[in-house]
């Protein structure tokens, strides 16, 4: 008990980033026990999305799966609250798209769709178009999803074009647009 009080007191003046960096250094040195204690201390001193996420990633890589889910749930809840507050003060593209991506990761596809549409009112990017397509696809809105995948593909100029085009083809196939889906799959085979 005395050790833990001293351990905690010795890090009171450290920032969340400093404690996280120390924990990562202990991992590199092979001392996962001290790294875990630092990650846990960081949560008690600096509860935030980042600190819960870091501990969750640590548990995941260390194979402590029963603890991982709890950290990620806390991480998502804190991130969601923070992003909702940011969106209340000023709706900007970055906070809206981050919030929508968080909903997408949590399988809240209707919420993700709603927020992605708000983000698109501010700025159109291939990533948001693609993610909106993903959220619609999971809601079995295949025609709408295919339209957003097609727009994402048209606006994309990077290595993810093949993935986007593949998602476009699958959404067409699920929408029973077999002829068009076959055509898109053939283009995919020929070009990517």
Secondary structure class reads: mainly alpha
Kindly report how far apart the N and C termini lie: 60 Å
Radius of gyration: 21 Å
Give the mean pLDDT: 86
Largest β sheet strand count, sense and barrel closure:
none
In helices, the fraction of residues equals over 70%
- Secondary-structure element pattern, one letter each: HHHHHHHHHHH
Q: What's the overall geometry? A: elongated
Low-confidence stretches: none
State which percent range the strand residues make up. Answer: under 5%
The total count of strands amounts to: 0
Helical element count? 11
Structure description:
By secondary structure, the protein is mostly helical. 81% of the residues lie in helices and 0% in strands. α2 runs antiparallel to α3, α5 runs antiparallel to α6 and α6 runs antiparallel to α7.
